[in-house]
Amino acid sequence: MESPKSEQQPLVTAPGPAYSAFSEKKKQFYLGIVTAAGFFGPLCGAVYLPSLILYQDIFKSSRSVINATVSVYMAIFAVAPLVGAAAADLGGRKTVYIVTLASFLIANILLASIPANIGALFVLRIFQAFGACIVTSIGAGTITDIFEPARRASALAIFLLGPQLGPILGPLIGGQFATESRWRWAFGFLALACTPVYLLILFCLPETLRCLVGNGEVFAKRGWISFPRFRQKTLVEEGKYPKPPKPSLKNWVKMLTEPTQCIVFVNGALSFAGLYLMYVSFPDVWGERFGFSTQEVGYAYLSPGVALFLASLATGRFSDWHRARLAARNPDKKIKPETRLPIQIVGFIISAAGKVMYGWFTRYNLHPVAGLTASALAGIGTAIIFVTSTSFQTECAPSQAATIVALGGLLRNIAAAISAAIVDSLVKSMGYGWCFTGLGMLDVVCVGGILAIMWTRGGRDGFCRL
Fold this sequence. Notes:
It is a multi-pass membrane protein. One of its GO terms (cellular component) is plasma membrane. The structure is a single chain. It contains 19 helices and no strands. The chain is mostly helical and 466 residues long. The chain folds into two domains: 18-221 and 236-243, Growth Hormone, Chain: A; 248-466, MFS general substrate transporter like domains (Growth Hormone, Chain: A). Helix 4 runs antiparallel to helix 5, helix 13 (259-289) packs antiparallel against helix 17 (368-396) and helix 13 (259-289) packs across helix 18 (401-456).
């Protein structure tokens, strides 16, 4: 009699540890905290602008000296995130959050309380910029720490609303304080708004840097509030999570000159420069040409602002959906970060159309609704580009997410500064129509860069199935 054959049980592979051990509610809570923190840098710069003429009298200084305080702020805003982001990628996020936001908070309290002095204004504007700008790049690092790539674009879309809406809402808020009796309240408002966010970071936001705490399992079961710790010791085995290289100019240059990253960096900077030039032109276009009041000019910024807000959220969800669809069709194949980039083609085309229309609608003084609609289209295109490029870059360099986002910010700020400096001469020599047509053509040229990436980096699967 034959013995019955033993049935072989199929091998079951135990699932690996979760990418992040934090609950969904805590992830969303932490996302809200870092989004609020990232809002202050762009907001602080924009709140200051409506009072520039007033500050000439308050600080008894010339126009060029007051404008220099803006230049100093922008210079620090462009460069400081590189240092702060590198420190956050290497030594921990929370320490840098605590130091930088404390600098921002103290600077605003002093500006709101001490006697008006131009020297103090310059020094405290430096501390303002240092404190506010670094948290934007660190926030992208925190998002990378706690959200897996499949959901990262949606999370980044929410986080990036701060940097995108700050320049839009800043003039509206700052305009409320642009009087001789209320100018200090511009800084008081920033201090009051920053205080609860700082306390949330201090007592509620844990350290998330993966090479220090892994997937956060050690914090996941703790309560929502904990005693603040300035420095977090390493809680994971050496080598389990990759550590970034030590900060160096060589490493930054290497990241900037990697061909794919270089194209994405330059494309984003060129497109943002065009949008920023549009922002700079608003006072002249709506104030001088159409007779809008100062307050009405501020409201005009809501057109691209609302468009940015809605397009960012939609782009993040679509980008993650597109990635999930590719993953479902290719379950055994690693999804490349480049598969997010074809979405940018739509963004560049919409941005180009918006800029060209804005230029010619302005040139022929068409109804304000036409120009505002065109500016909204430019905002939609920029949002698509911004969200997808940030998602792509954080997937390419997860251990240096804050640094790579800071590098992108550096190039965008340089491009914005150049565009602000040359806008008057460009418009005088070319007129609004041809000036913005040229900016739109730059967006069209950027499409060629995306096509080159998809062809040379093996991302054609993502391109063909978009």
